[in-house]
Amino acid sequence: MDIRSTIRAILRESLIVEEDIDWSLHELMDDIKMEQMSAFHQAMMDEQPNDAEKKHLKARQEWNVVDFSMIKRQWEEYMKWGKVLPRYEKSIEHIEKIFTENLLKVTLNTELAGHTGVSPEEEWMEFFDGMEPEEERERMVKYMCEYFPDWIMEGGQWRISDYGLKPLHKLLVQLRKEMDPSKKLPILDKMLNVVHQRSDIASWFVEGGSEALSDLSGMEEEESES
Fold first, then answer.
1. Which of 47-51, 191-195, 201-205 has the lowest mean pLDDT?
2. Is the pLDDT of residue 213 over 70?
3. Neighbours of 137 (CB within 10 A)
4. Which residues constitute the domain of residue 170?
5. Which of 104, 100, 65, 105 has its CA nearest to residue 177?
6. 6-25 residue pLDDT tens
7. What gap in Å lies between CA 155 and CA 162, rounded to an integer?
8. Is the Cα torsion angle 12, 14, 15, 19 positive or negative in sign?
9. Facing residues of 206 across strands?
């Protein structure tokens, strides 16, 4: 099952009929897949790491997270007014954009690292479709698979997730169907709860990671008690 099939399976489980499927999400996933595979390929060509010489890839996958100050401000204003004020709607759009892109990138990383039913070799064979001779194509595929884990390494761990993706994808489907920023924020909050429970992935979405989200949770609890 490839990335597109994974997303479609989640949509079916969410009881979303074919006519309601967000096809733009599929297109975005295809764009991110090509963008990230091309960026990794370019990094490999630039450095040409070699295990025989004990050289590993130094380049790392480009990654952006949401500033915690932005999250904190939006949540404070929402708790104060009970809605997202018009002047903050662009911030909600920005948070959604970062969350969406990072979730799809983690999904791609997990598959290309060989932690799903997807064959990384087949994905790279498709990427190098048309390369000749065939022996060179096979050599490049092996080369990509061998060094991809270096590229997605951050802080001593790979940016992959074996367990946190499914609930996040279900929430992403809900998020993209909702047009009202005041209804988007509670869905974003649920996504934060998911990554907070998985402290290893929280820092892939929000500056400060799980520790910062603990502060946010404390702020929400205080507000609910007052």
1. 47-51
2. yes
3. 17
4. 3-225
5. 100
6. 655 655 555 444 445 677 88
7. 18
8. negative
9. 66
Residue 37: predicted pLDDT = 98
For the segment 36-74, what is each residue's pLDDT rounded down to a tens digit? 999 999 999 999 887 667 678 999 999 999 999 999 999
Q: CA-to-CA distance for 65 and 205, rounded, in angstroms? A: 5
Q: What is the DSSP string of the chain?
A: --HHHHHHHHHHHTT--GGG--HHHHHHHHHHHHHHHHHHHHHHHHH---GGGT-----------B-HHHHHHHHHHHHHHSS--GGGHHHHHHHHHHHHHHHHHHHHHHHHTT-SSS-HHHHHHHHTTT-SSHHHHHHHHHHHHHHHHHHTEETTEES--SSSHHHHHHHHHHHHH---HHHHHHHHHHHHHHHHHSHHHHTTTBTTHHHHHHHHHHHHHHHHH-
Task: Report how many helices (DSSP H) and strands (DSSP E) the chain contains, helices first.
Answer: 10, 2
Name beta bridge partners: 158: 153
The single residue listed with the structure tokens 């929430």 is 171
pTM of the model: 0.87
Percent of the chain with pLDDT over 90: 69
Cα separation, 21 vs 173, whole angstroms: 9
Confidence at residue 175, expressed as pLDDT on a 0 to 100 scale: 95
Q: Taking Cα atoms as reference points, which of 189, 200, 122 lies closest to residue 164?
A: 200
Residue range 153-172: average pLDDT? 89
In the chain, the number of structural domains is 1
